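Fold Annotation — chain and its backbone
Next Lines — sequence and tokenised fold

***
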Amino acid sequence: MPIVAALFAVVLIACAPRYGYHRDELYFLAAGRHLSWGYPDQPPLTPLVARVMAAIDPDSLLMLRLPAVFAATLVVVCAGLMARELSGGRAAQALAAAAVASAAFVMGVGHMLSTAVFDLAAWSVVTLVVLRLIREIGAPHESANGEQARRVAGWLSGPRWWLVIGLVVGVGLQNKLLLIFPVLALLVSLLLFGPRKLFATKFFPIAIGIAVLIWLPYLVWQAGNGWPQWEMSRAIAGGSSGTSDTPIMFVLLQFGLMGPLLVPLWAFGLWRLARDARYRAFVVAYGLLFVLFLAVGGKAYYLGGMYPILLAAGAVPAAAWLGHRRTRWAAVGFVVAVNTAGSAVLFLPVLPVSMLKDTPVLAVNYDAGETIGWPEFTRQVGEARARLGPDVAILTANYGEAGAIERFGAPYDLPKPHSGHNSYWWWGPPSDAATEVLTVGLERDYLTRFCTDLQPAGHIDNGLDIDNDEQGEPLFVCRNPRASWSELWPQAKHLG
């Protein structure tokens, strides 16, 4: 298992500097420069991480992505340890870790800094600790190897593991609100199907208190700003995100999150957990989350955190069946290797950029296109503004465009950009003295609510024929605003 995790980390590190920043990473860097206890679309942890890494080396994409590599590698390690908690030996642990390391979803989120990778890591740790609790408290007569259970040396043993859960959940909720749903689903499932003995300890309410206390500053910020996170959630459910899924795609993509070749293994793990009363709550939680996210228009990857335990549960009996038969192991190794190769080609920057437009990568992996062309984008914005004058403000359609201008705009003397998108709206409008504004990515019909005089200033072209969100987007010069920008600014607000 350690070898698998190390190889996984090496691959992610090798790929980290390729292509370029993702639009979300540019946004996290901008949010890190406006540190707060909350944002309209996320808690503060990931922007804080971005700020720390930028302080170490502001120009290193590898440095920015190292925390994501660590978090994704932790998921791989947790998968192996889950197999151990489910009575699996070294072979089962290695198989579970290798399966998770080969997964498309885990590779994808491990490649770049995002809230998703920390959310996945937090839930993997919570799952692992709950398995330990079940072993030590719920079924103390057995251990991971089928022997008499042995408590962990020191004070951290038995019900005290709840304190770890409280800490991890609290920190996880300071990263992404999504974590609350699997936590509640698993708690409800454990209460309904057991083992209920897990809750018969004073450490359970203490854990809840720890989690709420850590999460509280973000809740206070949300309450003080009208709970914009709920508006954001409704926008995503309505399809405003580039990775939003239809109900049909939500279902179909469950077979691709880990890679199609791993479906038999996690399906077997689901069946195995359902047959064991000690672990049946995980199956119920999976079902509850599936129905919930499908009903509310959630993204397919929201369910991704449940698959490491399913793969670990399938790996234990699979490794026992494989035994010492080298031929069988070779066949399984080949399947995992093919899954790894397919996941890497689709979700890591393996292919040359010049080849992407002729491959299915962009159709399968939306995020790949969003990591290409930002320096060229900023250069074109800089050239357009240079033709206008030094006092022209910049207004962009989305936070990625604004973040790119902040990151790459210095050589072109570009000012701080403005946008009505998510946190950028909170950070304020152009100056009321601005009579000319260069707009980026905003359509003419939309801009007529702000200006009486609109002149085309060109279009964005990444020069690679890459069909991403910025390709072909218009530039306009917006003159003669209908009112002061501070008065117009409420109309510019949009979440998504």
